[in-house]
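pinned: reference chain
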Amino acid sequence: MDQPAFKQDHTSRLPANNLWTIQTVEALINLPFSELIFRAQGVHRENFDPTTVQLSTLLSIKTGGCSEDCGYCPQAARYHTRISNHQLLALDTVVAEARVAKENGATRFCMGAAWRGPKQADLDKVVEMVKAVKALGMESCATLGMLNDGQAEQLKSAGLDYYNHNLDTAPEYYESIISTHTQADRLATLNKVKNAGIHVCCGGIVGMGETRAQRAAMITQLANLEPYPESVPINNLVQVEGTPLTGTIDLDPLEFVRTIACARITMPKAMVRLSAGRQQMSDELQALCFLSGANSVFFGEKLLTTDNPQTDHDLALFKKLGMTPTQLGVTS
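pinned: its structure tokens
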């Protein structure tokens, strides 16, 4: 018996009111796998060259000793992990790391600091780092926690291109992961970044014990930001001994792919980035993610404090898949 053909219906395009509902995104994530991937690949091809991948490198410029209690983070001072605390790196060290990243093919250099938010004396040093990265001809990104009034404008004046501040998870699940600040606090920082004219990098983490419906809710919230983020990192939880989420049941790999596909469909022009957790992913899983609309990765052998795939392995994977890293100054 012939099987009925699936139709391209309203669930594969932005709703008429420009807002996604949780029900619509949940309908997407619940589609038969092949249908979901087909739709995501179609949206991807409408907006990007599917054979290119953007490379970003992330450096921890200040490690450990954070006052917050994010349940996934080994840098929280209250958790007993094997992470060593390091104060803010010297400018020369950061520039040297950025130069190596550029030589390896990265077009964006991201600087992360384990703070609730930066003190002004620390921000002054980060401003000099941003200027130095820009002088190398790279895009710059920073993730420094919550910003006070006026701090986003200082970063913008230094030439910062992107500011990363993730929503982490669905609103209704947030208090299960973090108690020392609210998701509203994160949204307030995102508004400061947007109002300063800095591009927003904002995504989330999956595999923290949330349900499929809660993953759909997180994607819905991201897609309904005005505008939706230009860069959307999707992280797969890396469990670090000593953090509260150690022992969480691993997310099924195909659930991760479904999340990537929904991010692509709902945020068609965003760079969807494979972020934390790639070290634990097979080449085949990453290939499915690229097929589902991912077009950016964190590139380099360390991702803040956790391991990332070797650069040679990544380049070999891109070659096998026929994918080419984007070049500086070239937008796909």
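why pinned: The CA atoms of residues 88 and 196 lie 25 Å apart. The chain has one domain: 21-321.
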